[in-house]
Design a protein that fits this description.
With about 170 residues, the protein is mostly helical. The chain has a single domain, classed as Up-down Bundle (AhpD-like). It is built from 8 helices and no strands. The two termini are about 20 Å apart.
Protein backbone atom coordinates (compact mmCIF):
# COMPACT_ATOMS: atom_id res chain seq x y z
CA UNK A 1 0.00 0.00 0.00
CA UNK A 2 1.43 3.39 -1.00
CA UNK A 3 1.47 6.41 1.30
CA UNK A 4 -1.40 7.96 -0.63
CA UNK A 5 -3.45 4.76 -0.30
CA UNK A 6 -2.59 4.62 3.41
CA UNK A 7 -3.74 8.22 3.90
CA UNK A 8 -7.01 7.41 2.10
CA UNK A 9 -7.86 5.04 4.98
CA UNK A 10 -7.89 7.93 7.46
CA UNK A 11 -11.30 9.18 8.66
CA UNK A 12 -13.06 12.23 7.26
CA UNK A 13 -11.88 14.52 10.03
CA UNK A 14 -8.31 13.95 8.80
CA UNK A 15 -9.05 15.12 5.24
CA UNK A 16 -6.50 17.94 5.60
CA UNK A 17 -3.79 15.35 6.26
CA UNK A 18 -4.69 13.51 3.05
CA UNK A 19 -4.63 16.77 1.09
CA UNK A 20 -1.33 17.84 2.64
CA UNK A 21 0.28 14.48 1.87
CA UNK A 22 -0.93 14.76 -1.72
CA UNK A 23 0.65 18.21 -1.96
CA UNK A 24 3.90 16.90 -0.52
CA UNK A 25 4.00 13.94 -2.90
CA UNK A 26 3.54 16.24 -5.91
CA UNK A 27 5.83 19.04 -4.65
CA UNK A 28 8.87 19.60 -6.85
CA UNK A 29 10.81 21.96 -4.52
CA UNK A 30 13.34 19.26 -3.65
CA UNK A 31 14.42 16.29 -5.69
CA UNK A 32 12.27 13.16 -5.61
CA UNK A 33 14.99 11.05 -3.96
CA UNK A 34 15.50 13.58 -1.17
CA UNK A 35 11.75 13.90 -0.58
CA UNK A 36 11.22 10.13 -0.47
CA UNK A 37 14.16 9.70 1.90
CA UNK A 38 12.69 12.31 4.27
CA UNK A 39 9.28 10.62 4.08
CA UNK A 40 10.93 7.29 4.94
CA UNK A 41 12.95 8.77 7.82
CA UNK A 42 9.83 10.41 9.24
CA UNK A 43 7.79 7.22 8.94
CA UNK A 44 10.46 5.32 10.85
CA UNK A 45 10.76 8.23 13.27
CA UNK A 46 7.04 8.03 13.99
CA UNK A 47 7.43 4.50 15.31
CA UNK A 48 4.04 3.62 13.75
CA UNK A 49 4.43 0.29 11.99
CA UNK A 50 1.62 0.65 9.45
CA UNK A 51 3.02 4.01 8.33
CA UNK A 52 6.52 2.52 8.10
CA UNK A 53 5.14 -0.29 5.89
CA UNK A 54 3.42 2.23 3.60
CA UNK A 55 6.58 4.36 3.34
CA UNK A 56 8.70 1.28 2.62
CA UNK A 57 6.24 0.34 -0.15
CA UNK A 58 6.36 3.90 -1.49
CA UNK A 59 10.15 3.93 -1.85
CA UNK A 60 10.41 0.40 -3.30
CA UNK A 61 12.44 0.62 -6.50
CA UNK A 62 12.78 4.40 -6.15
CA UNK A 63 15.59 4.73 -3.57
CA UNK A 64 18.91 2.96 -3.47
CA UNK A 65 19.47 0.73 -0.46
CA UNK A 66 22.19 3.13 0.69
CA UNK A 67 19.82 6.11 0.77
CA UNK A 68 17.01 4.06 2.35
CA UNK A 69 19.35 2.80 5.07
CA UNK A 70 20.57 6.34 5.72
CA UNK A 71 16.94 7.41 6.23
CA UNK A 72 16.32 4.52 8.61
CA UNK A 73 19.57 5.26 10.42
CA UNK A 74 18.73 8.96 10.77
CA UNK A 75 15.45 7.97 12.46
CA UNK A 76 17.22 5.49 14.74
CA UNK A 77 19.97 7.83 15.87
CA UNK A 78 17.60 10.78 16.31
CA UNK A 79 15.27 8.63 18.43
CA UNK A 80 18.15 8.41 20.90
CA UNK A 81 19.76 11.83 20.45
CA UNK A 82 16.51 13.78 20.57
CA UNK A 83 15.68 12.39 24.01
CA UNK A 84 19.15 12.97 25.39
CA UNK A 85 19.71 16.47 23.95
CA UNK A 86 16.14 17.57 24.71
CA UNK A 87 16.90 16.70 28.34
CA UNK A 88 20.17 18.67 28.23
CA UNK A 89 18.34 21.63 26.70
CA UNK A 90 15.32 21.56 29.03
CA UNK A 91 16.91 20.84 32.39
CA UNK A 92 17.63 23.87 34.52
CA UNK A 93 20.96 22.39 35.60
CA UNK A 94 23.63 23.60 33.11
CA UNK A 95 26.09 20.95 34.33
CA UNK A 96 24.62 18.36 31.91
CA UNK A 97 25.58 20.53 28.94
CA UNK A 98 29.23 20.25 29.93
CA UNK A 99 29.27 16.45 30.15
CA UNK A 100 30.01 14.17 27.20
CA UNK A 101 26.92 12.34 25.96
CA UNK A 102 28.71 8.97 26.06
CA UNK A 103 26.27 7.63 23.47
CA UNK A 104 27.47 5.82 20.36
CA UNK A 105 26.59 7.77 17.24
CA UNK A 106 28.95 6.20 14.70
CA UNK A 107 26.24 6.09 12.03
CA UNK A 108 26.27 9.90 11.79
CA UNK A 109 29.78 9.71 10.33
CA UNK A 110 29.23 6.61 8.19
CA UNK A 111 25.78 6.97 6.58
CA UNK A 112 27.26 6.97 3.08
CA UNK A 113 25.19 9.75 1.50
CA UNK A 114 25.56 13.51 1.02
CA UNK A 115 25.87 15.30 4.36
CA UNK A 116 23.13 17.81 3.58
CA UNK A 117 20.66 15.02 2.73
CA UNK A 118 21.39 13.21 6.00
CA UNK A 119 21.16 16.46 7.96
CA UNK A 120 17.79 17.24 6.35
CA UNK A 121 16.43 13.83 7.38
CA UNK A 122 17.83 14.30 10.88
CA UNK A 123 16.27 17.75 11.12
CA UNK A 124 12.86 16.45 10.08
CA UNK A 125 12.91 13.64 12.64
CA UNK A 126 14.21 16.03 15.31
CA UNK A 127 11.30 18.37 14.57
CA UNK A 128 8.89 15.45 15.00
CA UNK A 129 10.52 14.64 18.32
CA UNK A 130 10.57 18.26 19.51
CA UNK A 131 14.28 18.58 20.26
CA UNK A 132 15.10 22.28 19.95
CA UNK A 133 18.80 21.77 20.52
CA UNK A 134 18.98 19.22 17.67
CA UNK A 135 16.78 21.34 15.40
CA UNK A 136 19.11 24.32 15.85
CA UNK A 137 22.20 22.19 15.27
CA UNK A 138 20.90 20.53 12.07
CA UNK A 139 19.49 23.77 10.69
CA UNK A 140 22.82 25.55 11.23
CA UNK A 141 24.71 22.81 9.34
CA UNK A 142 22.16 22.86 6.52
CA UNK A 143 22.46 26.63 6.10
CA UNK A 144 26.27 26.32 6.13
CA UNK A 145 25.93 23.79 3.29
CA UNK A 146 23.83 26.22 1.25
CA UNK A 147 20.46 24.53 1.75
CA UNK A 148 17.74 27.15 1.29
CA UNK A 149 15.22 27.90 4.02
CA UNK A 150 12.35 26.85 1.69
CA UNK A 151 13.83 23.35 1.47
CA UNK A 152 14.32 23.21 5.24
CA UNK A 153 10.72 24.31 5.78
CA UNK A 154 9.53 21.69 3.29
CA UNK A 155 11.33 18.95 5.23
CA UNK A 156 9.62 20.09 8.42
CA UNK A 157 6.24 20.13 6.63
CA UNK A 158 6.85 16.51 5.68
CA UNK A 159 7.63 15.72 9.32
CA UNK A 160 4.48 17.49 10.53
CA UNK A 161 2.20 15.64 8.12
CA UNK A 162 3.80 12.24 8.71
CA UNK A 163 3.59 12.67 12.49
CA UNK A 164 -0.06 13.70 12.22
CA UNK A 165 -0.92 10.74 9.97
CA UNK A 166 0.78 8.34 12.41
CA UNK A 167 -1.05 9.90 15.36
CA UNK A 168 -4.49 9.72 13.75
CA UNK A 169 -4.01 6.18 12.46
CA UNK A 170 -2.77 4.97 15.86
CA UNK A 171 -6.05 6.08 17.44
CA UNK A 172 -8.30 4.14 15.06
Amino acid sequence: MSLKQFAETLPGYAKDLRLNLGSILSDQLMGEERKLAILLACAHGSGHRPLVAAAEAEIEGKLSEEVANAARGAAAVMAMNNVYYRFVHLTSNPEYGTKPARLRMNFIASHGIAKDDFELMSLAVSAMNGCGMCIDSHERVLLEHGVKSDVIQSAVRIAAVMKAIATVDATL
